[in-house]
Amino acid sequence: MDFFTESFLSALILLKSFDPDLMNIISVSLRVSIISTGIASAVSIPLGFLISAGQFRGKRIVITFLNTLLAVPTVVIGLLVYSFISRRGILGFMGLLYTQEAMIIGQTLLIIPVVTAFTISAVSRIDTRYRRTAMTLGADRIQTAGVLLHEARFGILSAVIAGFGRVISEIGISMMLGGNARGFTRTMTTAMALEYDKGEFVLAVALGIILMSISLGINVMLNWVQMRGSGFEVRG
Questions:
Q1: Which residues span the domain enclosing 211?
Q2: Could you count the other beta carbons within 10 Å of the beta carbon of residue 83?
Q3: Is 6 inside a domain boundary?
Q4: Which residue, 102, 107, 109, 100, is CA-closest to 82?
Q5: Is 179 left (phi over 0), alpha (psi -120 to 50) or beta?
Q6: How does pLDDT run across 121-160, given as a tens digit for each residue?
Q7: Which of 37, 139, 152, 189 would disulfide-bridge 122, Cβ 3.0–4.6 Å?
Q8: Contact 189, 78 (CB under 8 A)
């Protein structure tokens, strides 16, 4: 217990001092996660809308496949991307391995199924009367799509938040594609693993506090969005 207390107090002191190494690790984690979430959202939201609103053969198979991809381990994504960007891979000439760009590619692929599946779920819950009413009033396909996306905005925002929560806490892709290089590709999760292996727990605990705080913030935001989406409002 004394060991934990000492490590925790030392971690708080480290956080209060804004240690440069600590700040750099947090910055890399947030940068990579935000960019990958943005790219994945730009791809997944339109894709999820088209799958949900469209009628085509094999739709159920596509949705089942996306739901299956939700459980893919991060190391599988890391291995897949590694095979393409390593020196012997078809994209090896680009020199992406052990860079932030490689981590962004891997994390983007990781959460595209997450955001897409959640977007499909959000759009599919919209009452079909919205579409019929919009078309009756003379709206074209693009305007009708805008109406549906507006009605599903809280569910879609929840999808984006869930995607960010997935990538900020992953370790397999960051370790395999980033290489955990100090000052360049070291993230909060990879740094925690490294410090644990070294037996240096202060930095690991400090990063754990930050990561837990981010996770708490994500869950609070997700609950708020879901309450807004359901029309429930807490009044003091």
A1: 20-229
A2: 13
A3: no
A4: 102
A5: left
A6: 998 888 666 666 766 666 677 777 787 888 888 889 989 9
A7: 152
A8: no
Report residue 206 as tokens. 């400090």
In a domain, residue 78? The reply is yes
List the structure tokens of 45. 């939201």
What's the pLDDT band for 234 if we cut at 50, 70, 90? very low
Beta-carbon contacts of 68 under 8 Å, excluding residues fewer than 6 positions away, are none
- Res. 110: pLDDT tops 60: yes
Residue 233 has what pLDDT?
45
* Burial of 188 (C-beta count, 10 Å sphere; 0-12/13-18/19+): buried
CB count in 10 Å sphere of residue 73: 12
3-state secondary structure 97-152: CCCHHHHHHHHHHHHHHHHHHHHHHHHHCCCHHHHHHHHHCCCCHHHHHHHHHHHC
In a domain, 1, yes or no: no
Q: What is the CATH number of the domain that holds 208?
A: 1.10.3720.10
What gap in Å lies between CA 225 and CA 27, rounded to an integer?
26
**29, two tokens:** 């984690």
Has residue 234 been placed in a domain? no
